[in-house]
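Revision sheet: structure tokens.
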Amino acid sequence: MNQNLMQGIGMTSQRTRERLVERLLDQGVSNWEVLDVMRNTPRHIFLDEALSHRAYEDTALPIGFGQTLSQPYIVARMTEILLGAAGKLDKVLEVGTGSGYQTCVLAQLVGQVYSVERIKPLQEKARKRMRDLGLRNVMFKHADGGFGWPEKGPFNAILSAAAPQRMPPELLAQLAPDGVLVIPIGGEKQELHLVMREGDSDNFVTQILEPVKFVPLKPGLGNA
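Predicted:
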């Protein structure tokens, strides 16, 4: 990949990324591994060129097909929660690849990422971005994310970048012993949930963390 594109200039420069990290610190993100990855990940390459100058604003931005690139705070926050709650992170399932930005952040912090996306053009763009960034520990599947990726499970952790109306039992079933799930739940009103499996039992402990706003987790395959 063109190094000037990777490093950025002007509103996409390293200095702009440093300011983003300062804002994340002010918002309470404290995991330095996560902050370093956020600092060094070129968020602007996950957007169309016309929007790249807004990449380091702390806001969600459109990526087409009715989907959005999550705001940096929520990407950092969900990643921090995952790292803090899971004992090990050899295998992580991501529901909703989208642009691939959250995928990219995870891939720099965990062993293997398995990412499921229902919109094929978004997945193909994300796959190319992972190649351009030299990240080789991501596998992609074009499928309904609500069903996870059972043949690759169980997973130490699952992160959902889209909100179902209720907790999907299919995802809970794919958690490894002591596995964790970070997922937004709800419709107009959504809350971020942390679910922890107790050993290899069928008992799950749930914490409701904070209000959030995500695109809905839609069933089936499609372009929107």
